[in-house]
Amino acid sequence: MFEKLTSFPENFLWGGATAANQLEGAYLEGGKGLTTVDLIPVGPNRFPIAMGNLDSFQPKEDEFYPSHEAIDFYHRYKEDIALFAEMGFKCFRLSIAWARIFPNGDDVEPNEAGLQFYDDVFDELLKYNIEPVVTICHFDVPVHLVKIYGGWKNRKMIEFFETYAKTLFNRYKDKVKYWMTFNEINMLLHLPYIGAGIVLQEGEDKQQILYQAAHHELVASALAVKACHEIIPSAKIGCMLAAGTVYPYTSNPDDVWKAMEQDRESFFFIDVQSKGAYPGYTKRFFREHGIHIEMQPEDADILMQNTVDYIGFSYYASRCTSTDPEILKDQTEGNVFGSVKNPYLDASEWGWTIDPKGLRITCNQLHDRYGKPLFIVENGLGATDVLLDNDTVEDDYRIDYLDRHFAEMAEAIQDGVEILGYTSWGPIDLVSAGTGEMKKRYGYIYVDRNNDGTGTLRRVKKKSFHWYKEVIANQGAQYFK
Ligand code: P53
């Protein structure tokens, strides 16, 4: 009972994580409709659109939209999955593009070609005993639902989402055992168009709109949990949080309290999804900010009776805050989560704080708070890679990042935290959600494609490919010495 572990658990799900719009391409093939992410260009309009401050309902000729071709997984999935299998993946996280299944979102019948595409992908994964881990909604809403209904502002979205989710459960019930409802649900507060298909109008009460949309997503998520449990009783369905503990800059209680409040801005979503009710601190926040959430009488029961089975989360960085205006000026770059620079930590090329121990802290914090299994479904280093003449990439910096995070994950497991698996972000290079670049690479597999869309799309194994393969083969035993 108190014996020391010697490796990661035998059934630990090692793998990689992706999202439809960042790798599939073929954005209008097989009857697919346009989604929000298909209309987010690279360049100066990207952030205004992602944040819902500028609308975008039609592709424009002079803009470049990286999701339209991405890395062409739609046509190359067999080759890519064979490479994942070669690394020894036990699972692969992917999202389903809502508009492949329901091109408009409110269609009466699903699109068979879209359903068949994912059947084929799942069959290919299962051929190698790779467990599919499916995100139902990863930053995409069919554009028609945004135009006609206003995206997640509108309660009607709950019905459309429930129909979509049920269609998936019925179709894939024999193939998919791990599900997640909304990717990084807390991102809705930071990138409303990406997170919830929300375009904000001049003079609108932003907080009111975002929290009402959050309520709709939370009810929709609970209804998906309910349907999943009914249709596939053996499946597990989780939530997905963009995690990363907020540290106080000093031991000043005011800093400590502010850090706690910032953590709660994100935990609010997971408290509802995992514990089934709005926490007291959120009720107080709404009251004091004049936010009135319209709820139906049945909502409270739906939320309470359909809580998630596990806590999925992404972890890239910890955050840091302060009440001192001078210190607050020194912010990190490149991440939509504002954070004061932590003087003890380095950052990536894109300004994201690197904090391996923060992963152990975050795991312990989530374990203590929810008492449910965790699933680390995103982590990794976005970096510039150089393809060498001998056709490889010497990405020792990536290996170093992952190695240090795996060591802390092993510590968390020894602390008693139950972790179902680990899927690093972008096991094959793909389009960055934040910047739209190809240059910000996370992969074990290099893809010959440049920011402007040029390149052969050829796949090349990096040094980290062989390294990750070894870690998986050894069940990470080196981290338990
Ligand atoms: P990129 C911001 C902060 C934390 C996670 O991000 C984020 C974002 C959005 O940029 O998103 C997740 O590609 C997301 C993925 C995304 C990944 O982090 O900007 O779930 O879709 O690609 C990494 O480097």
Molecular structure report:
This protein is an alpha/beta fold and 481 residues long. The protein has a single domain (13-480), classed as Glycosidases (TIM Barrel, Alpha-Beta Barrel). The protein has 16 helices and twelve strands. Strands 1-2-3-4-5-7-9-10 form an eight-stranded parallel β-barrel, surrounded by four helices. The protein has a two-stranded parallel sheet with strand order 6-8. Helix 15 links the parallel strand 9 (374-378) and strand 10. Helix 7 packs parallel to helix 9 and helix 14 packs parallel to helix 15 (396-414). It is globular, with a radius of gyration of 21 Å. The model has no long low-confidence stretch (mean pLDDT 97). Bound molecules: 2-(hydroxymethyl)phenyl 6-O-phosphono-beta-D-glucopyranoside. 2-(hydroxymethyl)phenyl 6-O-phosphono-beta-D-glucopyranoside binds next to loops.
CATH topology: TIM Barrel
Beta percentage is 5-15%
- H and E string: EHHHEHHEHHEHHEEHHHEEHHEHEEEH
Rounded to an integer in angstroms, the radius of gyration calculated over CA atoms is 21 Å
The CATH superfamily name is Glycosidases
CATH hierarchy, class: Alpha Beta
Number of discrete helical segments = 16
Pfam family, one: Glyco_hydro_1
Protein name: Amygdalase
Keywords: Glycosidase, Hydrolase
GO molecular function: beta-glucosidase activity
